[in-house]
Design goal:
This protein is mostly helical. The protein has one domain. It contains six helices and no strands. The N and C termini lie far apart (50 Å). It is found in: Cell membrane.
């Protein structure tokens, strides 16, 4: 099951490349970002059973990979992490929220809505924190190399 989901995550990261007009030579690398993020998400989800914590670590891993690839391919990190987080986006929970609202099931809608916002916030925080960590390490590395 993990292999199938990883392949779908790979494809889910490859297809937005066309939408965002990213250089076609980077298609495979963006797919790997999504697959890597999904693998980390799956491992953490098995340990914690929390979609929010798993999404945070998945996004963190995608952005660390993206920062590394940005330096290697001399391109902005956003070329990798934007398509890379697509498999982590909580689409089904957002759909369920709206579905519950339409059915006048407001308790379940509130629960799913909070989960959707929590996952989205965790993804954003994972990207922000990993970018900060990479910049901090780069500054330390620069200071050590200049001494």
């Amino acid at each position: 099951m993990l292999i199938k989901m990883t392949m779908l995550a790979f494809l889910g990261s490859v297809f937005p490349v066309i939408l965002f007009n990213i250089d076609r030579r980077k298609i495979i690398w963006t797919g790997i970002a999504g697959a890597f993020g999904w693998i980390i998400y799956s491992i953490i989800f098995e340990i914690t059973s929390s979609q929010v914590i798993s999404s945070f670590w998945g996004a963190f891993a995608v952005n660390i990979y993206s920062e590394f690839m940005a330096r290697k391919k001399k391109t902005p990190a956003s070329m990798f992490y934007i398509p890379g987080i697509f498999p982590l986006v909580p689409g089904i929970t957002a759909y369920s929220t709206i579905s519950y609202i339409v059915e006048n099931n407001f308790n379940d809608a509130l629960n799913k809505g909070i989960l959707t916002l929590s996952i989205g916030g965790a993804i954003a925080f994972g990207i922000m924190l990993s970018s900060t960590v990479v910049r901090f390490i780069s500054k330390l590395k620069f200071k050590w190399s200049s001494n």
